[in-house]
What we know:
This protein is mostly beta strands. About 0% of the residues lie in helices and about 60% in strands. The strands form two sheets. Strands 2, 4, 5, 6, 9, 10 and 11 form a seven-stranded mixed β-sheet that branches. It has a four-stranded antiparallel β-sheet with strand order 1-3-8-7, with no helix packed on it. The radius of gyration is 14 Å and the shape is elongated.
Amino acid sequence: QVQLVESGGGLVQAGGSLRLSCAASGNIFSVNTMGWYRQAPGKQRELVADISRGGNTNYVDSVKGRFTISRDNAKDMAYLQMNSMKPEDTAVYYCNLKNYNLATKYEYWGQGTQVTVSS
């Protein structure tokens, strides 16, 4: 099992910045991807960004150039630096970890942290 604990959410004005942190613990495989998803009211959960253990990143188009995902493998931490934030970034943000073992994927979720951007 893997446990994920997010922190860093809150209220920010449009144009401001927030940094989310995710602490992972438990049975973390050597091949894994950590990521951030978000879910706004009435919308489906969507991938915001993810990063492999080797540092390969992937972003949804709407956050490219504004958000940066990073990780510290020694500490099993992932971060999401959010700059130039917009009201449409308002959502619950979830940390995600995917463990890979040959052809099998094991997926875990944090409890979520609210991010609200006021206009």
